[in-house]
Amino acid sequence: MNRKEAEMNVLWEGKPTQFKNINDPVVLPRLNATLDAHKLLWSIRLLVRRSLTPEQQQLAMDLCEIELLCHHKERAEKKKGIYTQVVERALAAENRSIPPSAKVFWNESARSYVISRLQVTTVKTSRSGCVKQSI
Fold first, then answer.
1. Do residues 40 and 2 lie in contact, with contact meaning Cβ atoms separated by under 8 Å?
2. Quick one: 60 and 92 in the same domain?
3. How many domains does the chain have?
4. Is 0.70 surpassed by the pTM of this model?
5. Per residue of the chain (135 residues), what is the pLDDT tens digit?
6. What is residue 89's three-state secondary structure?
7. Is residue 99 part of a domain?
């Protein structure tokens, strides 16, 4: 029996009442035992690597709870909060921070890109004496 059936209206002792509200020494314990057994049938298990830190395990549990148990109207805001934590922790681990503005971000990104390209660029001289750049 599922929980919805326990909430159905029945006629008990001449009065309409919810099935779960029947206060009978035989019916109530059997109903509770059936509902408890039904709860044990259903579970959600999250399998993760053992190498995850407790903090990472909690983040995974939080995300599962958001995806599976939150109302869809709350989901986006809660996910944004979790992912903000993930990004901030990752940046902190690399001793980096989120730039204060988009302009600063793009300036830093462009500078990083140019530096990374310069690091892989080598200058070679061909037999003819011309300088070649290769990446």
1. no
2. yes
3. 2
4. no
5. 556 777 788 888 888 888 888 888 888 888 888 888 887 887 778 888 999 999 889 989 999 999 888 888 889 899 998 888 888 888 888 887 777 777 877 787 777 777 776 666 555 545 555 555 544
6. helix
7. yes
